[in-house]
Amino acid sequence: MAKSNMDQDILKVLYTEEEIKARVQAMGDELYDKFADKNPLFVGVLNGCFIFMADLVRATQLKSELEFIGLSSYNNGVKSSGVVQITRDLQRDITNRHIIVVEDILDSGNTLAFLKKYLLSKGAASITIVTLLDKPSRREKAITADLAGFEVPDEFVVGYGLDYAQQYRNVPYIGVLKPEVYSK
Ligand code: XMP
Ligand code: MG
């Protein structure tokens, strides 16, 4: 494996760089077919979306616009607090826009349930939820993704944008963190 002092903290690899690339391309193709005549607005959920968003919009090749929102509910832990805070608000009017939400992982559903309500309250014409990872076993809110990359088991995953306490976002694959790393 290539140089990294983070690999030692990973218990197992769930999805390799190659598998992610192929799946993201297929997701991009699907979005192209759905939105080719709609000039959608991609709204990425910071910080976790940053790598997925960059790859997805290049895989999609749609005439579109990009926007970001910062949301937080984890306070550096591995479990959602349930209270979602806006850490960076939208910088533009989204009235009557077709929104493609780009999220790293749909876990408890607290974040996306909050965001969906928020975007509707701001006048969005439609909301399509795209998530790289889906962890349905831990859902607390009745929310589903319109398009999901991969399903993951009930384990804390990192890499490809996903963090533990702001670290491991630059791991190029998706892996499960060794429990001793976060129980220290
Ligand atoms: P909820 O629980 O609100 O979670 O659906 C959404 C946000 O929480 C983060 N999250 C994770 N981050 N590994 C991570 O690195 C995980 O297993 C995990 N589960 C949830 C993520 O940022 C997402 O935006
Ligand atoms: Mg996160």
Descriptive report:
Strands 4-3-2-5-6-7 form a 6-stranded mixed sheet. Strands 1-9-8 form a 3-stranded antiparallel sheet. Helices cover about 25% and strands about 30% of the residues. Helix 1 packs across helix 2. It is built from 4 helices and 9 strands. The chain is α/β, with parallel strands linked by helices and about 180 residues long. Magnesium ion binds near residues 48, 74 and 163.
Measure the end-to-end span: 26 Å
Radius of gyration: 16 Å
Q: Per DSSP, what share of the residues sits in E-state strands of 2 or more residues?
A: 25-35%
Taking strands numbered 1, 2, ... along the chain, how are they ordered across the largest sheet? Answer: 4-3-2-5-6-7
Which structural class is indicated by helix and strand composition? alpha/beta
Describe the protein's topology.
Layout: E1 10-15, H1 17-35, E2 41-46, H2 50-60, E3 65-72, E4 85-88, E5 98-106, H3 110-121, E6 126-134, E7 147-151, E8 157-158, E9 174-177, H4 179-182
Parallel strand pairs: 2-3, 2-5, 5-6, 6-7
Antiparallel strand pairs: 1-9, 3-4, 8-9
The protein binds xanthosine-5'-monophosphate and magnesium ion.
